[in-house]
Amino acid sequence: MRMNGGQALIKSLELEGTEIIFGYPGGAILPVYDPIIDSGIRHILARHEQGAGHMAEGYAHATGRPGVFMVTSGPAATNAVTPLADAYLDSVPMVCITGQVGLAAIGTDAFQEVDTTGITRSITKHNILVTRAEDIPRALKEAFYIATTGRPGPVLVDIPKNIVDATNPDAYFEFEYPDSVDLPGYKPDVPVDEAAVAAAITLMLAAERPVLYVGGGVLKSRGADILRTLAEIVQMPVVTTLMARGAFPDSHELNLGMPGMHGNYTAISALQKADLLVAMGSRFDDRVTGKVGAFAPDAKIIHVDIDPAEHGKVRRPDVPIVGDCRVVMENMVIQLNAVGGADAFGDRSAWRQQLSGWQEKFPLTYEPSAPGELLKPQFVMEKLRDGCPSDTIVASGVGREGESPSQYWKFDHPYTWINSGGLGTMGFSIPAAIGAKAAFPDRMVWAVDGDGCFQMTAQELVTASVNKIPVKIALLNNAYLGMVRQWQEMFYENRYSEVYLSHDMPDYVKWAESMGCAAFRVEDSDEVEAVIAKANAINDRPVVVEFRCHSEEKVFPMVAAGASNDDVIVDPSQAALLQSERLHQAGSQKETLR
């Protein structure tokens, strides 16, 4: 069939199974927008290109399928940089299509020209400038293949205007979509090294204080079910990083929760005191390790990751295994069952007792609000969690509002937690929630945002209203850039430089209503449950609930940047108990040395 480049691009997206394009049109990409009218693909018009990119990310997080967004050249392409970098750091499969000035104008500083492929080379898994209309189908086929195989990531396809222009005779060709790709040097399918798995199992059998250290790679491989099977066979306690929340049920007796800078004490300490870490799809991020030289000093390392570049990047593994987490875990289960399964492991009751003791002594805690005081964000999260279905999809902002849901929500289902882990992008949660809700219109989707994050991308609530995507927003308004304020209080002698935002400016309820949302303000703890129930009952438009929160409330536990995890700071109410625990541990170590 003969068609022009614009038609070919949309046809290629259809053949890749694209359901939704998030985007924003402009001059250079305009010829591609015309054939969308005749396509079955749904287009969602964002209010900013960054928003379109985060919507595609939210869609990809929730579904596991690649999110697609499309924008024009120049400033539109530079606005796409943030979601591309965000997706790159969090290994999110995504295809971004950008318009470009015509081939003859490239390099002349033409109107809205930027070197898009040059700008994005370091924040995409791959990018390409297509120079011939007949190459568009192959470029799209390769883009989807690269984005979704191996370690997932964003791929950018830059399209000069002249090769998609219906008025250009050279833009026409006989369309044929390839059924395979030929990419010499790119070999994402790595067979499992069974000898390495056997070596890993030997270490597992010998360990007395093991921990399964689970990262986002388990979710990317759709490996949550086999992870549970593996954990129950080896009877290892499990920690789930910020990117892996939901990969292993929080309600499971083996789950210790989240480690890291704002993880819980038991998860942090379990990694520190372990004699074996089975790192499954995790990358030893600095937010988890703290001071690298002091991280898990007595632990041997089994590191399973599909990207060999991760092995030894931060911590040298004793047994590196390159491969898809799900496939490797399946092989582990086979080999473990062959040597006796759960019966092959020795007594680890002392380790379990130590972990149980930490859980009892150092649970997540906070001081409840006194009557008449503003709300505590932890209290709001508990009430929101208890008032929503267990499979609610939660998208979070960053800073304090990213940590509160990751700490206080109970994730018993995979693919229900969407956050910006690697880049920590303010403004992520609202558009990401819109993308997830567009993918799953029958599921409840909440975004948890702070007032700082909300002001960056709130305009996308217009997108949600116009497109009838009834997301729900919990706006934790503490009048400050909360996490920055916490650092200034703890490490800068209470010198609060440029962090105050105001509880009252803007008026969030009026703003939300002007964007077509139902909106409520809550200041009294007695009203929280009722307003959440009211918000959950509204399904014909977006809902924004502004919770007026304490400005002074901090996120604990906390490991200061660059500090050892052994120096974790707990809630002030637990400080004396922690000092006692540390003295006890120091005494035990002296006894051992004797």
Write the layout of secondary structure elements.
Blueprint: E1 2-4, H1 5-15, E2 20-24, H2 30-33, E3 42-45, H3 49-63, E4 67-71, H4 75-79, H5 81-89, E5 94-100, H6 116-120, E6 126-129, H7 136-148, E7 154-160, E8 172-174, H8 194-206, E9 210-214, H9 217-220, H10 224-234, E10 238-240, E11 255-257, H11 265-273, E12 276-280, H12 286-289, E13 300-305, E14 319-322, H13 325-338, H14 349-361, H15 377-387, E15 393-396, H16 400-408, E16 417-418, H17 429-439, E17 445-450, H18 451-457, H19 460-466, E18 472-477, H20 482-491, H21 508-514, E19 518-522, H22 528-536, E20 543-548, H23 575-593
Parallel strand pairs: 2-3, 2-4, 4-5, 5-7, 6-7, 9-10, 9-12, 10-11, 12-13, 13-14, 15-16, 15-17, 17-18, 18-20, 19-20
Antiparallel strand pairs: 1-8
Helix pairs in contact: 1-7, 3-5, 3-17, 8-13, 10-13, 15-16, 15-22
